[in-house]
Amino acid sequence: MKTDRPLQLVIFDCDGVLVNSEPIFNRVLHDYLQDCGVKISFSETCNRFTGKSRHTVEACFRDLGRQLPEDWPDGFYTKALSALATEVQAIEGAKFVLDALAEKEVAFCVASNGLTQKMEVTLAQVGFLARFQGAMFSAYDIGQSKPAPDVFLQAASQMGIEPQDCVVIEDSESGFEAAHRAQMRCFAYQPQGPLPQGRMFGAVSFRKMQDLPALLDL
């Protein structure tokens, strides 16, 4: 969505945009599903659950006619957060982007399908947590996950910015759709190349995070 309005707020997704958490998270999820007797490959786990909420995992169990494990979701998240707290790294170039936004005094926040606790763990591990204090928004707290636009709209409202003056930085199809439905411009961080155009929802693809400040005309 193109606009001549000045940029006032950048809304980052967390996983895959600020922190490289998705390979770790998907590995733990794949192990968990296999322990529960779900026959699924690692690549299918990544394709099916990346960028989605826990409700997608729950739907997987229902589709297979299986009972959810008694420790779900706490048992899984305990394992996932433990791994993320020691292994996660920042996306290359993310610090450069945050520094550029701060220098130009452009506000930014993070809005994720993930739990607030997960964002706190991953952002703390890479040294970004202080930058997002008071500016973290979780779809779990709102009750609607992407591709619903609610978490982006809530972030803009809480930050006091109109949706038309926001830009979303995302890496998943559900995020692109959520930004489109929120009537926000979207840049798609896709280091492996863009999805087919019909799955981009108007998002503009870019491969290197270091290129984002120029794309934002900073």
What's the short version?
The protein has 218 residues and is α/β, with parallel strands linked by helices. It is built from 10 helices and 6 strands, in the order βαααααβαβααβαββα.
Main beta-sheet strand count, sense and barrel state: 6 strands, parallel
Uncertain segments of ≥5 residues (pLDDT<50)? Answer: none
Oligomer: single chain
Distance between the termini: 18 Å
Mean pLDDT: 93
% residues in beta strands: 5-15%
Global Rg: 17 Å
Spatial strand sequence of the major β-sheet: 3-2-1-4-5-6
| Net shape | globular
Helix fraction bin: 40-55%
- Count of strand segments: 6
The helix-and-strand class reads: alpha/beta
Number of helices: 10
What is the chain-wise order of helices and strands? EHHHHHEHEHHEHEEH
Polypeptide structure, described:
The radius of gyration is 17 Å and the shape is globular. The chain is built from 10 helices and 6 strands, in the order βαααααβαβααβαββα. It has a 6-stranded parallel sheet with strand order 3-2-1-4-5-6, sandwiched between helices. It has helices at 22-35, 42-49, 54-63, 74-87, 94-103, 116-125, 139-142, 150-159, 173-181, 212-215; strands spanning 9-12, 107-112, 136-138, 166-170, 185-189, 204-206. The two termini are 18 Å apart. The chain is of the alpha/beta class.
Descriptive labels:
single chain, 218 residues, alpha/beta, six-stranded parallel beta sheet, 12% strand
